[in-house]
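Encode chain A's predicted structure.
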Amino acid sequence: MTAWIDTHCHLDAPEFDPDRDAVRDLARSRGVMHCVIPAVERANWAAVRRLAHQHGDSYALGIHPLYTGRALDADLELLEQELAEHRADPRLVAIGEVGLDFFAPGLDPARQERFYRAQLSLARRFDLPVVLHVRRSADRLLKGLRDVPVQGGIAHAFNGSLQQARAFVDLGFKLGYGGAITFDRALQLRRLATQLPLNALVLETDAPDIPPHWLYATAAQRAAGVLQGRNTPAELPRIAQEVARLRSLPQEQLAQATRANAVQALPRLATLGV
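Encoded structure for chain A:
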């Protein structure tokens, strides 16, 4: 069976409360041998760590930009303490999910920037890569990385320009591709997936978010009573099938390359036998 790594899966999300273990087991039965589970705020740091150990996966700790509005300034100090306490845990593979979001309304850009740069500094201190949230913020994220260099990481759900993509790659980052690439109308994203070198790509689901096209219900369909399908890590092989088709690659070659890329982006994965 072809083996895959889902480099971004929110397995702790409440959508999985009814059947979380079964969700992970189904993904494994389809070849998803490892998931990286990023945190989004202080309240779920313990949960992502517990799930990573329970399922043989890995985790990242951080404060997501969408949660900076309700995060306390003291949470940054608590994050530093958490990283220090668990720095020897091989399943702690990154700082994340962190970054900037200039699409969602009601967020303070200056506060986002302060949390982002503070967490970059923690990544430097603890010698960890970062898992970045990139939404209409690529240039500001890149400026932060040039001002506060880190060892690299993953630009999750990347949807920027080719120039921006190359800039992230030059700074040691891999680019995460998931369900969005399965939509025919995602022309730029699909074009990028073929223009970038294979060693720049990693695969992800962002489950339960960003469902692939076969799970997506439009607003009109939802209004008519059609339920949105639930995205899970078990969808990764089918997402990968689309990436392989776009690049005219055998799936096994894509799997081997993206596994190697994930380990390069998150070096502690190597100690887990991934």
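The chain is about 40% helix and 15% strand.
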